[in-house]
């Protein structure tokens, strides 16, 4: 058994897997003998049917299964041993019929490769911002903590400082047929949710407002604030939606005292408002810097994608799209799809090459550590900062039982490691800016 390669060009080739009959005959014969031992053939006692009869019935299927298995193993081994970085998957070249009794047979596969190139990160330079939290961001963060532990004060009507719990449900017409079990949505709003707040301002508990399906479809922000995605708003089953005021209250913010400090950061960790402000600034600066680092990395990657030549195996990819997607009916359609996806494919190849050339690998410890950080981040949103490492890890391990979470978190780990490499090797133009200035930079 052997695999040979014939290049079409530098990014595509024909791989040929050649098998001798001796490569698979012994396994086929062994399988047929096992069939014979257990076969129930009418007219014969169990296991006593002639081997020739077993062969007539089963040999072709057994042989083809074994050939397919060995061809697949040989192909995968060749790709691994030669460290081939494929684009798409190998495409088998159609054959009329394989003669499993021939002394030798061959199976061909079209393959596309990533082009061979290197990236000198040191030759790329981008602005790298140091983003500092100011009084505005610190005050907002502390106010959010106070709201987290605030006392609810019931209110008679909706005023500018009120919070409003709403129930949103579709109005079922009297002549509507069938069952209509559309679960109501429950949302809480304040004046920051301007579209809905203006709708209910001045109302009291139990008051209702009706909206048409068309209003929600025409005003995406209104629909969003009422809990409807664009798709949900587009496909509402009924023509009216009823919004009911279920609760109105104001908040008496928690005092900035030791009790609140302990609730947020754990007993005795913060002992004064000054210490609290310093801690909040430290956390915000770290968070802002993470975003600034990502911005820098993205700018470097944009430059690389723009400047780096990446020869794609276009002819192969057209064949692969036609082979792998039954909804693509023509070569012209496949070429159009490839044209649309070309930039993203180039980006993926560049990202993969950077990871490979810089020895970036991912193991379970990396994924677990990232899952633990995600748990901490989620808890921090709710003002919970004092769970033990053991409790954090327990939640993280539970998270990693979901394979989709594992895939997503592994991708985040790879991106973080690539970010560190680019931060280390690419050129930086350092500049200190405020958070508002950074937001404007991102918007621009």
Report on the structure:
The protein is an alpha+beta fold and 444 residues long. It has three domains: 2-112, Alpha-Beta Plaits (2-Layer Sandwich); 121-131 and 272-443, Trigger factor, domain 2 (Orthogonal Bundle); 151-252, Transcription elongation factor, GreA/GreB, C-terminal domain (Chitinase A, domain 3, Roll). It has 15 helices and eleven strands. The strands form three sheets. Strands 6, 7, 8, 9 and 10 form a five-stranded antiparallel beta sheet that branches. A four-stranded antiparallel beta sheet has the order 1-2-4-3. A two-stranded parallel ribbon has the order 5-11. A hairpin with a 2-residue loop joins strand 1 and strand 2 (12-20). Helix 1 crosses helix 2, helix 3 packs across helix 9 and helix 10 (314-324) packs across helix 11. The radius of gyration is 32 Å and the shape is extended. It starts with a strand and ends with a helix. The model has no long low-confidence stretch (mean pLDDT 90).
Reconstruct the topology from this structure.
Elements: E1 2-9, E2 12-20, H1 21-38, H2 51-81, E3 91-92, E4 104-112, E5 125-132, H3 135-148, E6 151-154, E7 163-171, E8 185-189, H4 194-200, E9 208-212, H5 213-218, H6 220-225, H7 230-234, E10 240-252, H8 258-265, H9 273-307, H10 314-324, H11 331-357, H12 364-381, H13 389-399, H14 403-425, E11 427-434, H15 435-443
Parallel strand pairs: 5-11
Antiparallel strand pairs: 1-2, 2-4, 3-4, 6-10, 7-8, 7-10, 9-10
Helix pairs in contact: 1-2, 3-9, 10-11, 12-13, 12-14
């Amino acid at each position: 058994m052997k695999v040979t390669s014939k290049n079409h060009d530098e990014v595509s080739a024909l791989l040929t897997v050649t098998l001798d009959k001796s490569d698979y005959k012994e396994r086929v014969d062994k399988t047929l003998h096992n069939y014979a031992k257990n076969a129930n053939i009418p007219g014969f006692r169990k296991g006593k049917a002639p081997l020739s009869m077993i062969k007539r019935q089963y040999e072709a299927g057994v042989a083809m299964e074994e050939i397919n298995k060995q061809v697949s193993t040989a192909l995968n081994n060749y790709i691994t041993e030669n460290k081939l970085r494929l684009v798409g998957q190998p495409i088998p070249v159609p054959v009329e019929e394989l003669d499993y009794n021939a002394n030798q047979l061959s199976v061909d596969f079209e393959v596309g490769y990533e082009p061979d190139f290197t990236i000198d990160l040191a030759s790329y330079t981008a602005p790298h911002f140091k983003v500092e939290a100011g009084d505005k961001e610190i005050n907002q963060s502390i106010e959010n903590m106070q709201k987290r532990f605030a006392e609810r004060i019931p209110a008679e009507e909706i005023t500018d400082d009120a919070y409003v719990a709403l129930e949103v449900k579709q109005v079922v017409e009297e002549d509507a047929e069938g069952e209509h079990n559309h679960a109501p949505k429950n949302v809480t709003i304040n004046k920051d949710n301007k579209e809905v707040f203006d709708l209910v301002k001045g109302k009291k508990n139990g008051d209702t407002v009706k909206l048409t399906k068309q209003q929600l479809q025409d005003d995406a922000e209104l629909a969003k604030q009422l809990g409807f995605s664009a798709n949900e708003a587009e496909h509402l089953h009924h023509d009216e939606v009823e919004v009911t005021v279920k609760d109105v209250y104001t908040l008496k913010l928690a005092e900035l005292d030791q009790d609140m400090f302990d609730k947020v950061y754990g007993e005795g960790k913060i002992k004064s408002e000054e210490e609290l402000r310093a801690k909040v600034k430290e956390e915000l600066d770290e968070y802002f810097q993470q975003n600034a680092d990502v911005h820098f990395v993205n700018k470097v990657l944009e430059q690389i994608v723009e400047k780096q030549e990446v020869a794609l195996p276009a002819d192969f990819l057209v064949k692969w799209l036609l082979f792998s997607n039954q909804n693509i009916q023509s070569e012209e359609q496949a070429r159009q799809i490839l044209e649309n996806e070309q930039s993203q494919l180039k980006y993926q190849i560049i990202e993969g090459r950077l990871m490979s050339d810089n020895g970036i690998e991912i193991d379970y410890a990396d994924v677990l550590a990232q899952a633990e950080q995600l748990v901490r981040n989620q808890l921090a949103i709710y003002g919970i900062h004092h769970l033990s490492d053991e409790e954090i890890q327990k939640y993280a391990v539970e998270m990693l039982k979901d394979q989709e979470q594992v895939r997503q978190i592994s991708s985040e780990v790879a991106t973080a490691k690539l970010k560190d490499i680019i931060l280390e090797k690419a050129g930086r133009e350092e500049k200190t800016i405020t958070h508002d200035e950074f937001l404007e930079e991102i918007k621009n």
